[in-house]
Predict the structure.
Amino acid sequence: MVGKQGRVTGTIGPGLVGEVMVAVRGGVEAFYAHPSVSDETIPTGSIVVVVEYFPPRTVYVARALV
């Protein structure tokens, strides 16, 4: 999971549990998402990179360099 890119489908930010869609196991799955930088807000539609993964469905993400 770490290093995979995903798209934000629910705003991620301080005090919020966002959502990202990540391609895994031949499909696309939703994961609960938190920002890797605690005070950062990442809006819907942004491309992110998974920096930490906590099974089964939680990831910490950072904005992808595009």
